Amino acid sequence: MIARTIEEPLREAATLYPVVTLTGPRQSGKTTTCRRVFQHHAYVSLEAPDVRSFAIDDPRGFLRQFPAGVILDEVQNTPDLLSYIQGIVDEDPEPGRFVLTGSQHFALSGQIAQSLAGRTAVLHLLPPSREEVLRFDHAPTTLWETLFHGAYPRILDRGIPPRRWLADYMATYVERDVRQVLQVGDLAAFTNFVRLAAGRSSAELNLSLLGADAGVSHNTAKAWLSVLETSFLVFRAPAFHVNFRKRRVKAPKVHFVDSGLVCYLLGIESPAQLVTHPLRGAVFESWVASEIYKARLHRGLEARISHLRLTRGLEVDLIVEAGPRLIAVEAKSGATAGGGFFKHLGAFAEEMKTQPGAPGVTRRVVYGGDEAQLRSAGELIPWAQIQSVDW
């Protein structure tokens, strides 16, 4: 298995906190990464019924087995165990003793906030970024192959056809996690909802419309979208907050984390079909958003990503809050750089100059072509070099 960018932040966190928690979607590489980084820790999977039963019935005896450190995999299955870990680390706060992994961010974050606040570092591991994908022996080489395959490690490491693996992944996810997290009764309706949501990746979120198309209420659509977020399948890019004189659209955008999963849900069967698909631009924009999201999370940074649309035309696909500056990003799937690529970025930079104390704006266009250019209007970044840019 390839080395992951998050390994160094994990090692650093283990020198500062008695507990390190790594969350992310199923099959993103959490277990492999933790076992690689913490090779001298014991390893226990709490998915196994007999192990889980031991941890639940006799938590003190269970934890007493690991005086030298342990990786507890899928710890959301034994939420009460966190309270006992709290007691142990309060008595002996030796850094890096407990390493926890979990696949359900909402459930796990609530448990951590209650039991381990101030005692654990929380990091997130998503499917590999483009930088990490290139470490596989047979990484996709073209843009459309990259988007079609997505980035789940088993597809890239074992050469499994993407649609076959993703079909199994979705079936397992729906049958297992959805029932556990939200106890959805109508799995067919939920699956249809997920497919409809994929068709709106990179679009502004309208829960009422999405729910109506799926045949469910606004509240049900809201709850189901939250399930996709807590399972790390999608993330929201909220509307950028600034006091422009013009009216600002306040709806967030929703992006799927993995482009291959979007292609599968849209029924796209090959990279060639994606090239001419009417949603290819949306798939590309979500891929760019996800790459930036991963680049920050895998370095242990907050992923402060938003978007902007004013009612009178100004629109910016992505705005990244990167320390003392803003990075305004447009995603263009075309291979030829058009003269209007930087139009909205320039207008946004001018608008920001009207804001007292506003940070500077770096302007970037990520596009489907091959030539990098540093223009007076901003940076033109080929899709294949997105991993070489500091986000």
Structure description:
The chain is an alpha/beta fold. Helices cover 41% and strands 17% of the residues. It has two domains: 7-124, 3-Layer(aba) Sandwich (Rossmann fold); 130-388, no CATH class. Strands 8-9-10-11-13-12 form a six-stranded mixed sheet, sandwiched between helices. Strands 2-3-4-1-5 form a five-stranded parallel sheet, sandwiched between helices. It has a two-stranded antiparallel sheet with strand order 6-7.
Keywords:
17 helices, Rossmann fold, single chain, 391 residues, 2 domains, 5-stranded parallel beta sheet, alpha/beta, 17% strand, 6-stranded mixed beta sheet
Topology:
Blueprint: H1 7-14, E1 19-23, H2 30-37, E2 42-45, H3 49-57, H4 59-63, E3 70-73, H5 81-91, E4 98-102, H6 105-115, E5 120-124, H7 130-133, H8 143-149, H9 153-158, H10 162-181, H11 187-198, H12 207-214, H13 218-230, E6 234-237, E7 253-256, H14 259-265, H15 271-275, H16 280-297, E8 305-309, E9 315-322, E10 325-332, H17 343-352, E11 360-367, E12 373-375, E13 378-382
Parallel strand pairs: 1-4, 1-5, 2-3, 3-4, 10-11, 11-13
Antiparallel strand pairs: 6-7, 8-9, 9-10, 12-13
Taking the sheet with the most strands, its summary is: 6 strands, mixed
Strand content: 15-25%
The low-confidence parts are none
Shape: globular
Q: Give the helix tally.
A: 17
Structural class: alpha/beta
Strand order of the largest sheet: 8-9-10-11-13-12
- End-to-end C-alpha gap: 25 Å
Report the radius of gyration as a whole number of Å.
22 Å
> Topology as H/E string?
HEHEHHEHEHEHHHHHHHEEHHHEEEHEEE
Summed up, the domain count is 2
Number of strands: 13
Q: Helix coverage percent of residues?
A: 40-55%
Mean pLDDT: 93
